[in-house]
Amino acid sequence: MSSCLLFSNSDKSIVLVDIPRSIELAQLPKGQTTPSNRRLLSCQPLAKPWQNQVSSKSSQEPNMSQSASALIDELMACETVRHAHKAIRDTYHGDWHLPRTCAPLPDQTTIQHNTEAPAVPQKRKLCATELHHGDSPEFNYIPADSKYLLGSIESQRDSFLKTAPQFDIVVLDPPWPSRSVRRKKKNSYSTTYDMTEMHDLLSLIPIASHLKLEGIVAVWVTNKPAVIDLLKSPGGLFDQWNVEPIGEWIWVKVTSNGEPIVDFGSTWRKPWERLLFAKRRGSSQKLQPERKVVFAVPDLHSRKPNIRMLLEDFLPNGYLGLEVFSRNLTAGWWSWGDQTLLFQQKQHWVDDSATEKQGPKTLCQ
């Protein structure tokens, strides 16, 4: 199975990643050389940028409620992205994604589970790999050495506190408040309705007690200033978790031809999402480079690049990783969330070795 890394500059500050392949490779233990025939079903790659849409006059104007630090933050991100896009355009002349396996996709059925945690944690629900290695009996593919907590943060918190080790890396993809997601998506994580609810939800995650001394936290964020403030402002979640910022990665969403899905200067939507990194206060841990730009052609809604391979550039051998609010599992990692088995369901995968019996699948070029 070929790498998901299609391009990297010399200092690894600019990379191009194929999203479906990154998730496929994350199903395999680190260092496994035996290729897998299993392919993730995907959607057609976007061929042309979205047309700028403006719903009101106010959306065309600068957001005057932005703090000075938030505005500077946004301008710096935009300048970084523009520079990186020019650099990769000048240097890279290959394909911007690998061929995709496309077929009629199943409904993203919500995983059935009891959201009310019992008084005594159920091991069967807690860590499937304590019972199974390889495939789960019927409906899901479970990667080797992966462990998962299937349920809400509230319902599984006690189980996590009793069983989870300390981690070298904790990645969170929180369900940030979003009216559009609440309108359009029935089967994704339930988004919170305001920042107070989000603060309360994230405060339940015991980062401070389960992060190693040299551990790192990485949080996916939207481009809403209030999201950044919730994490970085004095008394915010980073303070609560006893961590401090050390850098960020920016995922730039591009078309199959390498153009941003919306213009970099768009006021109604930005073609990027950011991943903020923080270390324990007083730790000597560093992020090299401090800012990385990750280009990738988007796939299905809620699928982000699996960043295990990129993280391993600076994590110690034998590291322990945790992903919170995950939508798929990663070999060797813990995962926690009520959608954590979503893309592990067998209906989202096809076995290439069986195509002659099942009929050919459509390759999305």
From TrEMBL:
GO BP, sorted A to Z: methylation
InterPro entries per UniProt: DNA_methylase_N6_adenine_CS, MT-A70-like, SAM-dependent_MTases_sf
A cellular component annotation (GO) from this entry: nucleus
PROSITE patterns hit by this protein: MT_A70, N6_MTASE
Gene Ontology molecular functions: methyltransferase activity; nucleic acid binding
Similarity remark: Belongs to the MT-A70-like family.
PANTHER family: N(6)-ADENINE-SPECIFIC METHYLTRANSFERASE METTL4 (PTHR12829:SF4), N6-ADENOSINE-METHYLTRANSFERASE (PTHR12829)
This protein's name: MT-A70-domain-containing protein
